Amino acid sequence: MPAVAGPRVHAVSVVTIAFLAVFVAAILALIVADLAYARPAALVEALRSPDLRHAIVLSLVTTGATLVLVVGFAVPVGYALSRYRFSGSLVVDAVVDLPIVLPPVVIGVSLLVLFRTSVGQWIESVPGLQFVYTPKGIVLCQFLVSASYGIRAAKAAFDGVDRRLEDLALTLGCTHGRALRLVALPMARGGLAAGAVMAWARALGVFGPLMVFAGAVRGRTEVMPTTVYLELSIGRIEPALAVSMLMLAIAMVALVAIHALGQRHRWWGP
Amino acid sequence: MIRIRNLAFRAGDFGVRDVSLDVASGEYFVLLGPNGSGKTLLVHCLCGLLRASAGSVHLDGEDVTHAEPRLRRIGFVPQDYGLFPHLSVARNLTFALRARGRPHAAALQDVRPLVDRLRLGRLLDHLPATLSGGERQKVALARALAIRPRLLVLDEPVSALDTPTRAEVLDQLRALQRDLAVTTVHVCHSIDEAMAVAERAGVMIDGRLAQVGTLDELIDHPASAEVARLLQVEWRGPGGRR
Fold it and tell me: What is the ipTM of this complex?
């Protein structure tokens, strides 16, 4: 699209950019305050703590497993939402979005209630499938909170792929599955990757449902967000700050990745 | 040859009704009609992209009415050419053969005669977004021909091109079709375009095949006022002559 002609400085540009500057300044102020408060030596010392390191590793392991689950669900679900219309699809669409608008702690409470029912009790009785107060429960919470973000991103990515190209692939000898693999998936890959990063970043920050459903047991079910809470609850600000800053850095990298993947317009060559 | 009998398809108020048509092997047939007359719906039914609600389609004697698109061996070039934007020209051209399990390098050798014939060699590594309209049209045509189709369907193949390119592409289409002797259905809404490539045409009006005949017959004896209007000839009533 060509650039809009006319002066670059006018009332609308000044007011909107001023609002933008205020918002960015407010976020930067939070980061600068953290950096000013923290003593690098204390942060390094805090990160040497075995409990903290365990929480960091558990965070990475559980969010990695969550990422695999989210991608496994988001791709087919996003494709189905993008391509098929059926009776009740509006309601299904709303249900898929529910975890985005629901307070996350409600998901934890609901999970706890579910696992008190006979179905939940049966699942818990299956060897290797214990969820309540276990790392598997952490993955379940992270998945339920973050999957909607991945699904929404996958649907948007598939919406951006012209369905007629898949139809054309059928005339060129593809089955529906092959058309999906050779046309829709590669064309949607930028949006799918951005959605996966967004879902992973969201999973990393899950806190409320974990406290209710998985607990915050040191060395067992403690992950980075619960570490911040546990350290603050006993007045140890520097370890809490160390983990917070680590999460901040991860979030920044994730967001840059999302924007880079989302803005990729150029298709790769052969 | 193509044999269509009483074909029907309904999509809300829009549709194709009771279409019967024969196109001989190796014939270049034009399907004429104004916008919204059902031409594209008809060719989508022919290609299997839409499921006909009634009637039958036979290709070279085989009933393909309910066959999947991939099993019909119909080369389809849509109006906007439908090139895969994430694939190079080479990979677009070998797409159909790769979909059947042929490795890219071997498939590229298979399509080499088409590449040479349509002078696409220098474009093989390009992405579709970098091609001109005429080049895209040629790539789409070569890709459709790569499957050695029993039928080639061209949906308004030159509508997006400028006038000089259009004339050149129509000449090439006609020459290529003659050389390959591939049965072709060419959809358009211009009698001039039809005259540049075909001797016989069908006219679709409101979802029905209103008239089929040689272009001379259509022009000399339009079957209705609507057909006459489309062909830009005078209508002198039923049986009237110009």
Answer: 0.90
